[in-house]
Structures are given as structure tokens and as C-alpha cells.
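Listing 4. Sequential folding, example run.
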Amino acid sequence: MTERNTLVRSMHDLGLSAWFGGSLAGAVAVNGGAADLPDPTQRLGAATAGWARWAPVNAVAIGAHLLGGAAILRANRGRVAGQRGVAAQTVAKLVLTGAALAVTAYSGVLGKKLTGVSAPVEGGTTPAEATPPDIAHMQRQLAACQWLIPALTGGISVLTALAGEQQRPGQQLVGIIAKPARWLRAVT
């Protein structure tokens, strides 16, 4: 493999890092910081304001990750087709990416619905006893989403590490030889 893909790999990895790290920091710090406000009716507004400031940066990070990933996939399409295990890793990574995108989008929808709400809450995603039931329900959904996003993007990062291991010359040779051998055994 003589072709270098430094720019697109950087886009892919830095975008994923920001998506993962920003989501985790938000779940811990934005929501936690809002819980420290003395007025329970200001906590939800503070949390949604913090997340709203992060949203454009997150969108750029996700876009960079997706563009970089598409370019890497294009550059490695021969390996995906010809090396045993690479297609399965690629499909798993695409599934996790799709799930992370869906949960991120749903989290954004919930956040928009909670913007401007001044109900008493314990924190950005933690309802209080006096929180109206519909707001409490959205907060619980948002809490699940905001912890699921770092879990999913962390899984993408693990699969990215696996992809790097699969690109080692010894792994490529074994994977390329093993795939046709497996097909021949299936036919005979």
C-alpha cells in the first residue's frame, strides 16, 4: 500500500474524537454543571444552552468523520472485497455509525423540544419531583441518548483500531489468501 491518506484519515479520526469526546463531556459536564445552579427552574435552560453551543461544532465533526470515512472506504475498497474479515468489520462499523447518527439526531430533537422550558429539574437530564410528567419523560429519553452516543462512538473507535490492525502487511497477506481458500472449501 503506497498511497497515503493522511488528510482523510485525520478527518475521520478527529471528527470521531470530537463526536465521542464532546458527547461524553456534555453528558458529564454540561448536565452536571447545570445541576449545580441554585434555581431549579434555570437548570434545564442552562443545559440546553450549553448543548446548543456545542451542536454546530458537533455537526462539523460528524461531517468530517463521515467524509473521511467515505474516502477511506473508497481507497480501501479492494481490501474490503478481497481480505477476509475486512468486509464484516466495515459493515459493523457502518451499522454503529448509522445508530450513532440516529441517536444523535434524536437527542437533538429532544433538546430542541426542551429549549426554553423553565420547569423545576434536578439537572439537564434529571427530573425533580415537581417536573411535569411530559418534561420528565423527555429528560429520561435524553439521558439515555446522551450516554448511548459515547458508547456507540466508542464502539466505532474500537472498530477503527481493528481496521488499522487489519492493514498490517502480515494480516493483509493472511486475509487475502484465506478468503479464496474458504470459498474453495465451500465449493468442494
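-- end of first protein; second protein begins --
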Amino acid sequence: MDRETRALAEKHFRGLGARLPDGVCGPPGRVDFIEKPDAFSYADFFKGYLLPNVPCVFSSAFTEGWGSRKHWVTPDGKPDLDYLLRKYGDMVVPVANCGVQEYNANPKEHMPLREYISYWKEYIQGNYSSPKGCLYLKDWHLCRDSLRDTSVEDVYSLPVYFSSDWLNEYWDAINVDDYRFIYMGPTGTWSPFHADIFRSFSWSVNICGRKKWLLFPPGQEEALRDCHGSLPYDVTSPTLLDVRLHPACARCSPPLEVTQEAGEMLFVPSGWHHQVHNLEDTISINHNWVNGCNLAPMWHFLQQELHAVQREISEWRDAMPDWHHHCQVIMKSCTGINYKEFYHFLKVIAERRILTLAKEMGAGTVGSVGDSRLGTQQAAFDVSRITEVLASLVANRDFQRVDTSTFSLQPE
């Protein structure tokens, strides 16, 4: 990040104050297509897409040198199932059944990759049909699960545009988890309507195959709720035309539709609900990520999640000892994070950015922290965003009820 971009970003957030960015009334008329890597800088992406929170597609030129595009694909552009079988066949992968609805998602099971590849081959031979259903390998943590055998560089190179990635930086620092995923499945596999975890950004690259994305900007999903307040499972379902079931649906703008080709990379902004269909046998790599630009929406989302838990068990408030503590426990089990862990997340990223700034000022010898490509202007911007959200967190009445006595640094 350069000084000009940082100044623009900080002015943008000062203008918002404590407010969240306004939702987009309707989708933009088109999604920009970024063709040439040499002509598109990090500042271009930050100012044109990350800050205004709008999607874009990068051409296949941006992923041309990736190992997965060389090794996972046959000469005719199909998934090289035999290579994947030889390389990763014994690894256990999560598989969803696209033909079965479980709440607003699909039930998952785990199986060895060799079993899934055997199913996939049979599915193709059966004219894309199987008594086992339509199975989709989703959310496979390949890089985490094969750390000893496979480096990330053997599979892909993280584009600089997405390198301010606090979510994966944090999970790497505590060595617990990550939000880097592989998806693969035959024609017809799909992901139901959803917004990404924690209101994170995401990026998705088709290693091979084609996807159709249906994208709705923040706020548009409210018009899609049914008469019970629930979001739809499938936005292509004819039931959405029933005004008794979906009384506000007519007010929703049509989705922004994107067909993503092989090698192309899609940026999905924070809070954009979407539904995704594989138009061909497809493999993709996806990351969820958070940084200073969507930290406030993440914090707002966590407050909403806690309030939902509190409403759900409100009748036990007076009878249950440590009711507030139990709400935090339930929130973590449902959401994956609670206020205590969110504080620790902010602390870890802040400490790493402060080390970067200390190194720049010559305050001793400090190792490389985070992604060195983004520089000290990015670190200063990050600290300013953490400062604002941390102040809001510390002032929050529910956070003040959290036992912070064991924290290595006290919130104040």
C-alpha cells in the first residue's frame, strides 16, 4: 500500500464514523474484467474494488503459473482424476450431497479421496447420474492437511491483491485452522444461497471447468426472506414467485450473474449473498479472508449472532447461572468464534503490525511479519482499523461481562 492509498482509505472510514457502509440498492450493471496483471496494481484493486466492496473477475493470465493448473488438469481441460488419485488418494475429504437439503445447506460425510474419485468416474459413466446422489467435495483443507507433503507453492501462489488476509494469518499464528479450501465436483454440483463466514471477503479460482455465480449485494437478501423470516435455500426455485410465501420478493433486483471460466479468479465482496453452480466438471481453490476493510462488518455480524443466541435462550436468563457465559459458549459452537476469541484475533494482528512499524522506525531487529509486499503504510492502516473496532468492543456491555482476568494484555 502506498501513502496516497492509505490516506484515501482512512478518509473513507472517517466519513463512515461508527456506521457500516450502506448496502447497495441493486447490483452494478456489470462485473469488471481485469485482463492484464502488469497493468493492475494492488492500489488499483484496493481503491476500485476492495474499498467500495464490489466484485470483479481477473483473467486466467493471473493464475497461469500455478502448479495446480499444470498438474491437476488434462490436456483437454478436464480434471485429471488419475493424477489427483495418485497424489492425494489416501487423504480424507468432506463431501456434501447436493440433492439433500439440511436446513439451508447440504449434509456432509467424510471419505477417502480415492472413494470420491471412484464415485466421480462412475457418475460420468452413468450420464451424470448415480443412486448415491449428486456429491460435491467441499471445504477440503488441502494445504493444512498435507503440510508435510505439499507446500502451498506447489498448488498456487497467493495473489498480492488478497495478501492482507488477517483470518488466515491469525489461524496460522495459533496453528489451529485455516480458511483455505479446495472444491471439486461434476457438472450439476452446486452451493446453496449463502453469505460467507464472518462476512468475510472471498476469492475463488477455477483450476478447470466453469461456474455460474448469482450474486446479491448486501441488503438485497432481505427481500428474499419468506413469510417466516428465513432466507431461501435455492434462489432459482419457482417458490420464490409465490407472494404468499415470499411477500417482498418482487422488490429484489435480479442477481448479478457471472460465468467464471477456467483459470479465472472472482473476488466476492463482504456480505454479498451468492449461489454457485458448476456448469462443467470443475475444480476450484477458495479463500475466505478479513482485513481492515471488512473488520467493522465482521464485528457487527458477531454482535448480531450473539443477540440471536440471547433471544433463543432468553427464557433461561434468570434461572441459569452464568447465562452470559453460556451465550458465549453457544455462540462459538454455532459461529466458530466468540467475543473472547475475537479480542484475541485483534490482539494478534495488532501486535504483528506494531512489530512491522517498529522495524521501520529502527527499534531493534524484528523478523518479517505478515505479508512484506504490503509495507508499512498497510501496517499503519491496519492499526488504525483495529483501534476503532477494539474501542467499540471494549465499550460493548456483553464484552464487559466476559472474564478477561486471564488475558495476557488487559483490554483497556
